[in-house]
Design brief:
This is PGG domain-containing protein. By secondary structure, the protein is mostly helical. It has 6 helices and no strands. The chain has one domain: Up-down Bundle (Butyryl-CoA Dehydrogenase, subunit A, domain 3).
């Protein structure tokens, strides 16, 4: 719209901004309800992941050496390093996701918030929570590797792969469509037609 149109008023005395606000009150209300429910659900998931991973990080697999060094028993093993890094990533990403969704929940949900702030927070929060879920699975698999006996360690990799694959399929089927719709809606310049007109 040309800038000089913003000062004109219609028969009711409303500017284009006033008319837009009045006609979109229902949309803002329904969007607020949907966004609140989504943020609450994701906050619960992020809090659960943070709690589980914090307990995991606190308990070192194998314990510590009895000498004065205080180093972990499995310090030099690759699986222990993978466990440590993945647990740390899962902890920080889940806490970050929790903070992001708390920001969404404490928003004023005004019309201007739906223009830039909230559309940026929700995809970023979903990205961080995806990272935390994946890192938690990697951390659990690496930590569980120490529990298996030598005769069962050959079977551990296929079992971990199947478990992670099933979770990945569920995430791709259920959550990725929402994620890509949010990204497309945020960065596309004009609304895209979903269905072609019948000729």
């Amino acid at each position: 719209m040309p800038p000089h149109f913003f000062i004109h008023r219609n028969k009711k005395g409303d500017t284009p901004c006033d008319a837009f606000t009045n006609t979109h009150k229902g949309l803002v209300k329904s969007s607020r309800k949907w966004l609140t429910n989504t943020a609450q659900s994701c906050s619960v998931v992020a809090a659960l992941i943070a709690g589980v991973v914090f307990a995991t990080v606190s308990a070192v697999p194998g314990g510590l050496k009895q000498d004065d060094s205080g180093q972990p028993v499995f310090d030099e093993k690759l699986s222990f390093n993978i466990f440590s890094i993945a647990a740390l990533v899962a902890l920080y990403s889940s806490v970050t996701a929790l903070v992001i969704f708390l920001v969404i929940l404490t928003s004023h949900y005004q019309q201007k918030d739906f223009h830039k702030g909230l559309p940026r927070c929700l995809p970023f929060g979903l990205t961080v929570i995806f990272v935390s879920i994946f890192a938690m699975l990697v951390s659990f698999s690496a930590g569980h590797f120490f529990v298996l006996k030598d005769s069962l360690k050959d079977m551990s990799l296929p079992v971990y792969t199947v478990t992670c694959f099933s979770v990945t399929i569920f995430v791709m089927a259920q959550l990725f469509p929402l994620y890509f719709d949010l990204i497309n809606a945020k960065y596309s310049k004009i609304p895209q037609r979903r269905q072609k007109r019948a000729t």
